[in-house]
Amino acid sequence: MKVTVSVNGKQVAGEVADRTLLVHFVRDVAGLTATNVGCDTSSCGACTVLLDGRSVKSCTVLAAQADGREVTTVEGLSGDSDELHPVQRAFRAEHGLQCGFCTPGMVMATISLLAENPSPTEDEVRTALEGNLCRCTGYHNIVRAVLAAASEGRPS
Amino acid sequence: MSILGTRVVRTEDPRLLTAGGTYVDDLRVPELAQAARVTFVRSPVAHAAITGIDVSAAKDAPGVVAVLTVADMDDLPPPPPDSGLTGTEGAPLPLGGPWSEPLLAADRVRFVGEPVAVVITDDSYQGEDAAELVSVDYDPLPVVVGIDRALAGESLLFPSAGSNVACATGTPADGAAFDGCDVVVEREIVNQRLAPVPLEGRATAARWADGKLTVWVSTQNAQIARFILAGALGLNPANIRVIAPDVGGGFGAKVGVDRDALIVAWAAKHTGRALRWAETRSENMLGMTHGRAQRHVVKIGGTRDGRILAYRLEIVQDTGAYPRMGGFLPFLTSLMAAGPYDIGHVETAYRVAVTNTTPISAYRGAGRPEATAAIERAVDLFATEIGMDPAEVRRINLIPADRFPFTSASGATYDTGNYVEALDKVLASAGYTELRAEQARRRERGDVQQLGIGVASYVEITAADADGGETARLVVHDDGTATVYTGSSAHGQGHHTAWAMLVEAELGIEMSKVTVIHGDTDLIPAGVGTYASRSLQLGGVAVQKAAVEVKEQARKVAADMLEASEDDLELDVDRGVWQVRGDPASSTTWAQVAAHAGEAGLAADVNYTEGKPTFPFGTHLAVTEVDTETGKARLVRHVTVDDAGTVLSPVLAEGQRHGGIAQGVAQALLEEMVYDADGNPLTGTLVDYAIVTAAELPSFELLASETPATINPLGAKGIGEAGTIGATPATQNSVIDAVSHLGVRHIDMPLTPARVWAAISAAAEKGSAR
User: Fold this and answer.
1) Residue of A17, A95, A100 lying closest to B651 (CB–CB)
2) Is A38 exposed, middle or buried (0-12, 13-18, 19+ CB in 10 A)?
3) Which of A140, B167, B177, B264 is the least crowded, having the fewest Cβ atoms under 10 Å away?
4) ipTM given for this complex
5) Coil, strand, or helix at residue B455?
6) Does pTM surpass 0.95?
7) Interface touch B662/A38, C-beta < 8 Å
8) CB-CB under 8 Å, A135 with B663
């Protein structure tokens, strides 16, 4: 079937098998490989992207379900500028990533979290990110990065 | 001021945050443009004879390029000969001979997940369909799960070996050793099997062209991977190039390459088609090696005033279906058995047993967390028995600061340390006295939420294979930039940042002008890679030494340029320029010096060998709240000193500690790889395996402490595994401490609500029966 998705603002069309997952559409058809597959049970969140502005695990969405909709991946956050998105900047400043494999999904989940709750407490951050696994950081600096990004986003 | 020791953000991050890393499955290189996909057909049974494999239906499925089984493996060298080291000798593993591990299974499968066949298809969806069509006839054999059934030997995994025990060694029990003790406590402790779960699973791509094999693999050690590939495939190492691109975590389970990667490489050569494979998580949970899986019997004895006099540790290592590196782990456990204590008499003994489960290998700590878990539980059991505060028992027995270097009764020579100070720092920062007072109040009130305080002191061994050394090549180019080729290998640790810091500190070439290259055997033929917390103290020192060599080369060149004596030249590290001493006007840049050096260039090769390992140490204190009605334990605070010598990058060192602590806590409270009696894995997905998430952890309280190593010029010890080693027993002790007043003395890990509740109930029953 033919699927057309707006990925990071660009129309991407592809002829794909009905069962094609959105994550494979993003990686193989759109050619954007930052979004990773870390499990096969929707547990790890490495594949998290924004679908019409809200975070989804793209291994749990069919490409067909995204037809005609907008997908944002980590590659699309800073647009054409060299400036990092505030969440990306916070992850770097707080050493919120090590091997980097979970990072694109973690960043997208954070953006969605802060859109819903711009001033989360530490507990709220931890609960909200429960579906995004990281094996390197012990989550300590990820939580700090999310709180720092939230604080940066607040009017002072 | 030197950049070393300052809080530098990572150079790796902008790329990882904007474009993502390039892991094996992300490679879009031309050599792999036409690559087909490999899908494994794996054994669904734990132990069986293979009586037939029918691949005909699979071969006809859409997109299928080939279906390969052991019958196609007629182009491999024979398996390694018998090492002859079985029986009572301590043996390095794998053993070869009757214990040999095949690539694709031959006549028998020994664990669920063992590779039996590979299906090669144009895309991965086709591969999953076709793999379903491979028909394998299994004739079930009695299954060996658990150490008792392995030792009983009623069913043998390797009949020609004559036993399920791959090696056994150690000192016989000296009954008299405990004679002078007022109190002796003995008990069995299980150090459960864990799954490493790097977020990127195993992945391999391979291409055979023009007599050369190129293998892209997610590994901690490209050079070791090449060595293993050469041996397994019977190729000259010169005809193999191994590339480790970005690697999404390793934790010991990606040392070298394992069987599945070898099969992919072989299949690429055999079929002549470029191939790629990235395992699913469900494959990863069964196919990637597991860690820990030891059973201990600890015996500890001492005086009523708190002095430990004797300790015995007996280990049985469940090494899974094949004796890989798992057999080496109890050697390290034995070596580190005495922990940070001055104990007069220590005995250790171990056996390594095969079972019908996934093979065991290194997992963050690799034998040392098991040693620490054993003695730290033993110390708490002893403290409880004599009615003394467990922190006080530790203080009495810790090796005093004036006794280093200190050779422990289990045979390790600890280089430097200040163990008592580490303990005291943690107790003071945690507010130990107030915590105990709060615990007493809750006990007095009979609160449902009881407070537990767990302490664990540790010493561990890093760069245990210090003789293996590490390589570095540093080149300064005529545009003023520098390139570091390191034999060490990064998979999240931040080598690119740390190595660039070392170059800037030594040469004044800004970090942003330093490129670090690792993990490509064509560019770096010699190297060891990353495991055993060895990178900084070997690979980092190699980089620093290379920088010193380049500096001396540059001094000669600059002297020639400036027509000055070498002795009169100085390198202004802050500005990154050479000049005649006291004459800034004579400033000459690295670019100018490198250009003047001409063809000889500015380049140095170093292979640095430390000669001896180093011994980081520390203390962890965990505070838990335990719900005595449900058994649910929650970690609320975790305070640590992890002293790994002089710290090059506080940011990176703290990151290593955070990750280690989380994995250590996860072992104590949550994670366990479970098999049923038939060898079926019950925790084979991330839904079933209780991998730790952000929601189960607090933020950690890290305290600084730097006691330099004296055997390397950076003063560095390893920090990669320390967090894991200290956190597990501190957390376990904490939960047991929370319910010890109810009569609970020990609970095996993971301390799930069910286990804690059962322990409380059993203690209550025992209490009321009295």
Assistant:
1) A95
2) buried
3) B177
4) 0.97
5) strand
6) yes
7) no
8) yes
